[in-house]
Amino acid sequence: MTAPAPTAVLTATLARIRLNPRSRDVQRDLRDARELHRTMMRLLPPSDASVARQAHGLLFRLEAEPRAAHIHLQTTSTLHPDRLPSDYGHVRTKDLTPMFSALREGIGVRYRIVANPTKRISLPPEEGKRGPVIPLTGAEADQWWHRKATEAGLHLHTLLPTPLPAARSPRGKDNRPRMRHDLIRFDGTATVTDAEALTRAVLTGIGRGKPYGAGLLSLAPA
């Protein structure tokens, strides 16, 4: 009898980019979420532009700290930090295999996610089109995260929401429309209820706005 093939270990790489505030490229990217997305994509191998982010499992978020700003970037592909502009910042990487291997039902974790909580407004059927997507705030945003966390295999114990500046992009010279994604950071503690669902959520992200700095779920031991 042929032995079953071993189960592939799902993993990813996390990069922490300490941004150089004097870099003109950094200044541009912090003003324009579309430009920041393009810069992050430069770190990855070439791919079909229509599915490149998903193909490489690219997720990231901006962390504005008192002394410096950082970008936390996660990918399932090989990273190429040398493709960043020379004065962009300092990059450190970490293999997330040990974290995924340690995920078990019942363990406690600390979590952080910068998310874009939204809902779609329902229109009467006779309108013949889908309703607009609107951002959620306050209790509605908290309820959104509770629901998404449950679907992702987490039972939340604590939740601290922090509204953040929106990810924006101005109207471009090519007449591209303005873009805005409202962002809220959720921090807290939780218990893992479904390790497989949680692994998928970490690898694929949660909610809308993933190309522009939303959806990356980070975990640490509680």
UniProtKB/TrEMBL annotation:
It holds the Pfam family CRISPR_assoc. Signal peptide: none annotated. InterPro entries: CRISPR-assoc_prot_Cse3. Coiled coil: none annotated. It comes from the Bacteria. NCBIfam families: casE_Cse3 (TIGR01907). This is Type I-E CRISPR-associated protein Cas6/Cse3/CasE.
